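Why do we bother with holo predictions? Because pocket geometry can differ from the apo form. Keep that in mind while you read this record for S-adenosylmethionine.
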Amino acid sequence: MPGLYIVATPIGNLGDITPRAAALLARADVIAAEDTRVTAKLLSHLGLRVPMTPYHDHSDERARAALVARMETDVVALVSDAGTPLISDPGYKLVRDARAAGRRVTTLPGPCAAIAAITLSGLPSDRFLFAGFLPSKAKARSEAIAELAGLRATLVFYESGPRLAATLAALAEGLGNRAAAVAREISKLYEECVTGSLGELAARYADAPPKGEIVVIVAPPADNVVEEADDAAVDDALRAALAD
Ligand code: SAM
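The structure, written out:
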């Protein structure tokens, strides 16, 4: 069926492509790709040759309109370099315009570094805010962190190795020395998830900026651990009940 298909791709391990994603890419009329050279490697791994066109949110209106027009008759697949399109990646304007034009829009869910990192971190996963990349300039970064300080939710940031220690220190300053996790190279050979307080993690990485791709997870404010208090109360009640 013609339309726009949002296709998640692996964030490291090519084995993580879903069978449905591979089948859709095989029958796509065109793949709108963030970087066609990166997507070419995935297609080569899958043994596919499919026409591609570059797509970014700053692609001009005409390029977007042309893709939306094609969706009337063609299967248009949207992919980013890695993971789920639109998540700190291009795509939302294409989806917006496809919807406005009444095109069929569907998604083929799959890998996303933010979600994978939350599952690795051991931090509360019931309520979280995905904050993407913090600004690189110190003042703008502090302001962005201050906006998040009162939020009763786990916070998720994308980050790069060279900026990691400064970001962790700024988070400790703006949020307090909360529990946190640094998830690195998820699904790749050197995957690791290091946990500790923001201060400990900032010190750990200060002299040794890590290589590879990174997600930082920060626990909610301490007064948000209502559930833990409730769990303890339930345990006490159970112990008391069993002792009777
Ligand atoms: N759309 C992607 C997704 O669904 O996760 C994210 C794209 S964003 C431009 C790239 C950032 O995602 C990286 O700088 C890093 O912070 C994070 N990331 C991507 N792959 C990762 C991996 N394998 N391990 C840890 N973080 C990763």
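The chain has a mean pLDDT of 92.
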